[in-house]
Amino acid sequence: MNPRPDIHDRLAASLKAARKSKGLSLDAVARLSGVSRSMVSQIERGESSPTVATLWNLTQALQVDFAGLLEGKTAPGIEVIRASAAPTISGRGDGVKIRILSPAESAGEHEVYELHFATGGTLVSDPHSPGCREHVTVLEGMVQVMSGEEEQTLGEGDTARYFADRPHSISAADGAARAILIVQNS
Fold it and tell me: Contact, 5 vs 49, CB < 8 A?
């Protein structure tokens, strides 16, 4: 009788722990990795021996170290991006610096940005995908939000939610301003 190698148990436990530490369902891992839900479940139960390609797709989706997976080491539960390391976008708006706060893998679904407006700064956007909504919260100063034909002025602590599937913009209303912008695609 040939007992199942210990590596299967370690791999199964490591993948399940990595998925749970990220708060992901089997369906979410399947979508992110391109590996079927049933295959992910079988691997987590130790009922299947995945190919190297399948393991690679799963480790990329779960953001875990390929080698550490077999050693039972998973990614830490808290991922920290230091302020100086967060990517920024300049030149997208007139007088606006955009700091990207969301992970790259969430692009197109759920994006989070910190906006720094110089006096008179404006971020003008073309329509996004149908049903897309934005949520902007002012941290400092005042901003004016336009979505289609509607406009609102917001002060510190105010939040506006609006459709972004039409022309829209955010502008500093009175001096410099800072805000958090969340983009949600449906």
Answer: no
Superfamily the domain 83-184 falls into: Jelly Rolls (2.60.120.10)
Q: Which CATH architecture has domain 6-71?
A: Orthogonal Bundle (1.10)
Q: What is the DSSP letter of 132?
A: -
pLDDT tens digits along 110-125: 899 999 999 999 999 9
Query: Measured over all CA atoms, what is the biggest interatomic distance in the chain, rounded to whole angstroms?
Result: 78
> Residue 181 CB: number of other CB atoms within 10 A?
19
Sign of the CA dihedral running 156, 113, 171, 161 = negative
Q: Residue for token digits 């949520």?
A: 135
List, in sequence order, every beta strand (DSSP E) within the chain: 88-100, 110-125, 133-140, 143-147, 150-154, 159-163, 168-172, 177-184
